[in-house]
Amino acid sequence: MIIADLAAFLACIYVYIEYINITKNVYELVDNITLQSNYGFFFISIIIPIIHGVSCIKKNNLNTRYVNYAFIFIFLCLLVTNFWFDFWLESKVVDAGYTYCEAMSKSMRMIDFNVYLKAGVECLK
């Protein structure tokens, strides 16, 4: 379980580092910015250590009804945050004057790499 907890924390760190890099690229007005879809799913992996913590709390026989409600609330918040974060990050890039370039974007089975170009840069393959 420790390996899963560590992987979840590393996924959250990855999302944080990507956010910092994207924000830096927007402020430096680089020619193109690549946004990976589903950053929120990496972030939502933080639920793994939360589940681990909840299971430890339940072992101590604390009021499990309130722990269950808190867990459900946290999970729903993370689920909403998952979709909101991707939308918010994309709108931040678009509001900075970047436009989506379909020709340079790539798609894998579950992840898209969407390329946004600064105004005046041509969308070429």
Q: In angstroms, what is the radius of gyration?
A: 18 Å
Helix percentage range: 55-70%
Secondary-structure-derived class: alpha+beta
Helices, by number, come to 4
Question: What is the global morphology?
Answer: elongated
The poorly predicted ranges are: none
The main sheet comes to: 3 strands, antiparallel
- Please state roughly what percent of the residues sit in beta strands, choosing from under 5%, 5-15%, 15-25%, 25-35%, 35-45% or over 45%: 15-25%
Separation of the first and last Cα atoms: 44 Å
Please supply descriptive tags for the structure shown above:
125 residues
Give a written overview of the molecule.
- By secondary structure, the chain is an alpha+beta fold.
- The protein contains four helices and three strands.
- It has helices at residues 2-28, 39-44, 47-59, 64-95; strands at residues 32-36, 99-107, 112-117.
- Helix 1 (2-28) runs antiparallel to helix 3 (47-59) and helix 3 runs antiparallel to helix 4.
